[in-house]
Design a protein that fits this description.
Elements: E1 2-9, H1 15-28, E2 32-39, H2 45-55, E3 59-69, H3 72-85, E4 88-93, H4 101-106, E5 109-112, H5 120-138
Helix pairs in contact: 1-5, 3-5
Length: 145
């Protein structure tokens, strides 16, 4: 079974975001073991970087605005490539200040979902949904229309 780690700086406070993440984690459980690691916010992004890098395993996807934008099918292909090669990957969502350059430099892939800025709690929901969508695409499901 594949292993997906989601490393996040900060916690989700709103119950509706937690419920949405839990729903996608439940759906993903048939494809992969998914673990979320919530890290404490530091005084700055450089202070957060060592803990982020310690928590990251396998192929590392750093979510950052200057990353590459992919369609859902392209993300599915990238996830399949990584799963077939390594079997474990980590997606990193930084704090509201972003990610330190050392984290971005350590990433195997810099991924951007948009030029827009989203609340980090919502980004976790969006990421979980897109990972689930990727597995459904790779399974040949009609979930992705």
């Amino acid at each position: 079974m594949y292993k997906i780690n989601i490393v996040c700086v900060g916690k989700i406070k709103e119950e509706f975001y937690r419920a949405a993440v839990a729903e996608y984690l439940k759906r993903l459980s048939r494809f992969a073991k998914v673990e979320i690691c919530e890290l404490a916010e530091g005084k700055n992004i450089e202070e957060e970087a060592p803990a982020i890098l310690r928590a990251a395993k396998g192929s590392i996807f750093a979510l950052c605005i200057e990353g590459k934008k992919l369609s859902s099918p392209a993300l599915a292909a990238e996830i399949k490539r990584v799963c077939d090669r390594r079997g474990e990957m980590t997606f990193i969502i930084g704090s509201s200040c972003g990610l330190a350059q050392t984290v971005k430099d350590a990433a195997d892939f810099k991924l951007s979902f948009s030029d827009m800025t989203f609340p980090h709690q919502l980004m976790r929901v969006i990421l979980c949904e897109q990972i689930y969508r990727a597995f459904m695409i790779n399974a040949g499901s009609d979930y992705h229309k």
